[in-house]
Structure formats: structure tokens, C-alpha cells
Design brief:
Layout lengths: L1 E10 L4 H11 L3 E10 L2 E10 L4 H9 L6 E6 L8 E10 L4 H11 L3 E11 L6 E11 L5 H15 L1 E5 L1
Antiparallel strand pairs: 1-3, 1-4, 2-3, 5-7, 5-8, 6-7
Helix pairs in contact: 3-4
Amino acid sequence: MRKLVLTVIGDDRAGLVARLAAVIADHDGNWERSQMAELAGKFAGIVVVAVPPSRADELAVALNALDGLLDVAAYGGSEAAPAGGSFTIDLLGNDRPGIVREVSSVLLRHGLSIRTMDTSTREAPMAGGQLFEAHIVVGVGPDGDLRAVQKDLERLTAELLVDIDVS
């Protein structure tokens, strides 16, 4: 089977996933993994599909027919699984521009890769304003120095006025 990574986006409305799933199934594709969400009135997602190599091009053409309902781009995937372990970062603090840039810069300095990242904002219950929350799963190889990463992230807590928990 050939792996394809699909990115999808469209105006949020009922039936988008059903239409996408039908096209995939009609081409003998298997929906293996996905992350999808409604964001600011748009429905967006990423889907990993396994499809017989003889049907991959045909599937890509059929996905283009969803234009107007969903914009879909198909990319060839990799069979390799990420090597090494992982750790998580949970962050909570007052929302302000630059939080993701600062945290991701620390990870980049240590040669680490973000495997998943979920972020959101919500009203602060007592103080007013917005809170920013992030849950990040970070891949780390056998040579990764978690203690050094933790130290750099702890420095950010004072600069950004956020709580960061690494586990």
C-alpha cells in the first residue's frame, strides 16, 4: 500500500468528512489516521490514507473533484516511524504574540522535532483577558538532553509569564 498525507480545508458544514471518506473508500483507500478541527469557521485537517499504488493517482484526481466543497492536497507519505522517545510540554499563561515562536525556538536549538501540537485560547476565569494553552509532544533521539531542554524552557516561564510542565 502507498501512504498519502492529505491536507483538507473548506468552509465548515455538515457532511465534509462523509464526502471525503466516500472518495477515499471508492478508491480502495484506508483512512488510517487524522486530526481535524473547526477553526474560525473553516474545517481543516490532515489525513493519512493507505491506497493501492495502482489507485493512488486516480484517488488524487477524484479528491480534486471535491473543489468547492473541500480543497485537498495529497502528498506522498513515508513508511518510516519516528525514532527515539518523546516527552510532553504543557503550557498555560496569559495570551500574547510570540509564545509559540519562543517555545519552538528552544526545541529547534536542541534539534528536537514537534510530533503533535494542540493550542487554544480561552477566557481567563477571574482576571479577564485570554489564556493561551498548549500541549506539545516532542520527539527526542537517544542523544537528546532532556535536562538541558527543561532548563531552557524554565527560563521562558519568567520571560513569558507562563507555566510550563515537562513530562
